[in-house]
Amino acid sequence: MKLHEYQAKKILKTFGRKVPYTRIAYKMEETVYLQDGRNSIKYICGIKIANSIKDVYKKASKIIVKKLVTNQTKKKGKIVKKVIILC
Fold it and tell me: Residue 69 and residue 40: Cα distance in Å, rounded?
């Protein structure tokens, strides 16, 4: 079964499990506004910790709208359309 993170979180919440509060950024400009002072940005292939708001923007710019190749996507890869900001 393949689930997106937001789907898994919804299922976990249904069963009373705590899940981290996140926001989704679809554009680079949104990463800074959604970052909310916690200095972390998560994306499909792991977690990147940022040291400042500028760092959040910099790290997001390296992955958003870029092709991401992982074991799950194989060589074909997938275009990253959004990043998840942990709040």
Answer: 22
Tens of pLDDT along 50-76? 777 788 888 888 888 888 888 878 888
Architecture of domain 21-86: 2-Layer Sandwich (3.30)
56 closest CA partner among 20, 29, 26, 19: 29
Mind spelling out the 3-state secondary structure of 52-84? CHHHHHHHHHCCCCCEECCCCCHHHCEECCCEE
For 7, the enclosing helix (H) or strand (E) is helix 5-14
The pTM score is 0.56
Place of tokens 């002072």: 37
